[in-house]
Amino acid sequence: MGWTPMEQEGQEELIDSLGKDLSAILFCPVRYCETHYSKNIFECKHSIPFPKYMVQICQETGEWHEIIQRHKDAVGNG
Questions:
Q1: Cα-Cα-Cα-Cα dihedral sign, residues 7, 10, 11, 16
Q2: Residues near 55 by beta carbon (within 8 Å), at least 6 away in sequence
Q3: Is residue 33 one of the residues assigned to a domain?
Q4: In angstroms, rounded to a whole number, what is the distance separating the alpha carbons of residues 55 and 78?
Q5: 32: which strand partners?
Q6: Residue 35 — very low, low, confident or very high, per pLDDT cuts 50/70/90?
Q7: Structurally, how many domains does the chain consist of?
Q8: Assigned domain for 24 exists
Q9: What are the beta bridge partners of residue 51?
Q10: Strand locations in the chain, DSSP E?
């Protein structure tokens, strides 16, 4: 029996939920780029990376200020 990656149950729903919330908070489309970067990263249309763990913490706590400020500073709206 060879080793093959296995999808974790619920992972797709979590990624969808995180991406939807991140996009809504930033007013900017985002995509999940795990296959592109080989890391758990979301990226907005301005190519600003947001690690999944950071987005998940913000979603759980409701504290999005750091992510919003990071986006504003990078886009030039801060």
A1: positive
A2: 18, 21, 22, 42, 67
A3: yes
A4: 20
A5: 42
A6: confident
A7: 1
A8: yes
A9: 41
A10: 30-32, 41-44, 49-51
* Model confidence pLDDT, tens digit, residues 38-76: 889 999 999 999 999 999 999 999 999 999 999 999 998
Q: What is the mean pLDDT of the chain?
A: 85
- β-bridge mates for residue 30, sequence order: 44
Residue in the block written with tokens 């029996």: 1
- Examine residue 3 and state whether it is found in any structural domain, yes or no: no
Q: Domain limits at 41? A: 20-75
Give 3-state DSSP helix, strand, coil % of the chain, rounded to 5.
55, 15, 35
Per-residue model confidence (pLDDT) at position 78: 55
Determine, yes or no, domain membership for 65.
yes
